[in-house]
Design goal:
Length: 98
């Protein structure tokens, strides 16, 4: 999976999901996916804007999460995923990855 595929897959999922009620930024290796869910729908961009919650990980870990090979909580506790900001928004990420 390339960086462009990360963006396009997250974009497709986020556009079809209910608004997340805040702003969320994913940093996957060098790729950035910013989701603004403060309005009537989620708006997705590749802009490096401030967000209520920022989640950083590698493409390898992201793929393992999507395939169910890694437990999300264990990945956070093991430092494979870093989360800063609103943890309530971080909990909504599962719907954008599955």
């Amino acid at each position: 999976m390339s960086d462009n595929m990360v963006y396009s897959q997250m974009k497709e999922k986020a556009e079809n999901a209910d608004p997340i009620g805040g702003t969320l930024k994913f940093i996957v290796d060098k790729s950035i996916v910013h989701i603004d869910g403060t309005g009537g729908s989620n708006v997705i961009s590749e802009e490096d804007k401030d967000a209520d919650c920022t989640i950083s990980t590698s493409l390898e870990v992201l793929l393992k999460l999507k395939n169910g090979e890694v437990n999300p909580m264990m990945a956070v506790m093991g430092g494979q995923i870093k989360i800063s900001g609103d943890m309530g928004l971080a909990m909504k990420v599962q719907s954008l990855l599955s």
